[in-house]
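Closing statement on the hypoxanthine sub-project.
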Amino acid sequence: MRRLAVIGGTGIDEMDGLVIDSTHRLQTPFGEPSRPIQEGRVGGARVFFLQRHGRPRAIPPHRINYRANVWALKSLGVDDIVAINAVGGIGAAMHPGRLVIPDQVIDYTWGREHTFDEGSSGSLLHIDFTEPYDGALRTALIARAEAARIPHAAAAVHGVTQGPRLESAAEIRRMARDGCDVVGMTGMPEAALARELGLAYASVCMVVNAAAGLGDAPISTAGMHAVLAREAAVVSALLRHLLEANYGA
Ligand code: HPA
C-alpha cells in the first residue's frame, strides 16, 4: 500500500477528521520542517500531514524550508504527496471558489533553495519535468472529484510567484499571456523537489480571489479567508474520498 502525505497550505491548518497516532519531530540535512509531521488515520486510511506555513501560520512563502519538508516526508516512507495551494484566478473560468487540479507549472520564483543537487554527488540531477505533476495521482484526484460530484477544473497552468506581495496588474497580464490560469506562491520549488526524490506529487488549488487587476474590488486578506473557509471543507471531502478509495486498509 502506498503512503500518502498531504501538505496543507493557507486555510488548511489541520487535517479534517485526522485521528493522530504519532507526531514526528524531524531534523533533516537541510534543517527542520515547517512543523512536526502528524501521522494518523482518516477512516481506515493512513496519512501524513504537514502544514507548510507552520503553526500559527507564520512562515511566508519565500522562507519555507521546502527541502526539509519534502526530505522529511520521504524519510517517513511517503510515496505520494497531495499539496494544497491557495491561488488567485487568472483564466476566465477560474473564479473564486473554484477547485483546480493543475497539470502544468511556470516557475517565477527566485532565490529559493530549489534543488537537492549541491554539486557534490558526482552526478547531475537533471530530472525530467516535462509533466511536473504525477499523472496517476492527478487521475486519482480527478476520478474522486467526479465520483463525489465536486466541481473542479481538471487541468490548468499554475504560475508560481515569489511573494509575499501580490502581483501588479501588468504582471498578471503578462502571466495570462504566458498561459497561466492561476497564480500562487508556494507551488515551487516543492513540486520539483518531490520529483528529485522520486515522490509522486500533485496539487489541488483553491481559487480564493480574482488575480490583481481582474476583480471588481481590491484583493483583501479577509476576502480570501472567507472563500478559504468555504473551500477548505470541499478540499477535505475530496481528500477523504481519495484516502478511502486509494489508500484504505
Ligand atoms: N497571487 C499570488 N498568490 C496568491 C493569490 C494571488 O492573487 N491568492 C492567493 N495566493
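The pocket of hypoxanthine is lined by residues 86-88, 161, 166-167, 183-185, 208-209, 211, 224 (CB under 6 Å). With this model delivered, the sub-project is considered complete and its resources will be redirected to Aim 3.
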